[in-house]
């Protein structure tokens, strides 16, 4: 199974090549946008890992080209841990995930495997009240209107939606956000993310009816389920 790696740091290329080779994945690497597009045009890839900043072109340009060549191929962006703008832009460009540098090997391979599993069949659209989340497209809507989420807000909502109405503890949410951001998230920070998310998906944020608090334990989405039609 081939992996397209677009990265200009030879140290990262070498480390990822060794790591993924041990997982049975064959890495084919290049450092420039034009090279990546040419390679994708003549080889078949199961997944692409794209650095945002390249010596010539950008990861966003590569992403757009790959979407035209292979619309269903999962794309993961490699970003600096504090580069939230690039993360959001990457998701909006069609990436299915992002991985912060420096990488944690076990997390990275797990996220790649998850993306490959999802690509085998489109992920179902998740719904809670009038809020819908489409993991395949990384989009969110409320009553049919687009909701723009930050990377952290998206990750938080995805974890809650995928629980299908079950309780998600505060610790579980902190761990999920920590995995995506590469840094520890404190309780107060989690409170901020929950408040910001409610401001975007609730009719009355001070009286939430979708993202519910289970006092002393955590949070859950009201009547969360997969959309069936």
Any overview of this molecule?
- By secondary structure, this protein is of the alpha/beta class.
- The protein is 42% helix and 22% strand.
- The chain has eight helices and 13 strands.
- It has helices at residues 10-21, 33-42, 59-69, 84-93, 105-119, 151-162, 170-181, 187-201, and strands at residues 2-6, 26-30, 47-51, 75-80, 97-101, 126-128, 131-134, 139-142, 145-146, 168-169, 211-214, 218-221, 225-226.
- A five-stranded parallel β-sheet has the order 2-1-3-4-5, with helices on both faces.
- Helix 2 packs parallel to helix 3 (59-69), helix 6 (151-162) packs across helix 7 (170-181) and helix 6 crosses helix 8 (187-201).
- The model has no long low-confidence stretch (mean pLDDT 84).
Strand content: 15-25%
Question: What is the residue-averaged pLDDT?
Answer: 84
Computed CA radius of gyration, to the nearest angstrom? 18 Å
* Shape designation: elongated
CA-to-CA gap between the ends?
33 Å
Looking across the biggest beta sheet, what order are the strands in?
2-1-3-4-5
> Total number of β-strand segments?
13
Please write out the topology:
Layout: E1 2-6, H1 10-21, E2 26-30, H2 33-42, E3 47-51, H3 59-69, E4 75-80, H4 84-93, E5 97-101, H5 105-119, E6 126-128, E7 131-134, E8 139-142, E9 145-146, H6 151-162, E10 168-169, H7 170-181, H8 187-201, E11 211-214, E12 218-221, E13 225-226
Parallel strand pairs: 1-2, 1-3, 3-4, 4-5
Antiparallel strand pairs: 6-7, 6-13, 7-8, 8-9, 10-12, 11-12
Helix pairs in contact: 2-3, 6-7, 6-8
